[in-house]
Design a protein that fits this description.
Layout: H1 2-12, H2 23-39, H3 47-50, H4 62-81
């Protein structure tokens, strides 16, 4: 178990040719992106989402199945009595 842990730590510590990333630079870019989004007054991309249909509140087709069963039962009773 200790060997596996050491191997994982060794692998995690390797450099894979990635450029050094400055945390402050990343934070500044994130802030600038947030400011850009906040200044964006164009919300037209939300129009399509607001026109989405409502979620179903019942099992699809449940009413039609119930109606068909009632019609079949009524027909059987009619044929049996008639």
């Amino acid at each position: 178990m200790t060997e596996q842990s050491n191997e994982i730590q060794e692998i995690m510590g390797r450099s894979y040719g990635m450029p050094e990333i400055d945390d402050d630079e990343l934070e500044a870019e994130l802030e600038a992106l947030g400011d850009e989004i906040a200044l964006d007054d164009d919300a037209s991309y939300l129009d399509e989402a607001s026109k989405a249909p409502n979620a179903p509140t019942a099992v699809p087709g449940a009413d039609s199945i119930t109606n068909k069963v009632i019609v079949v039962i009524s027909f059987i009773i009619f044929v049996y009595i008639g």
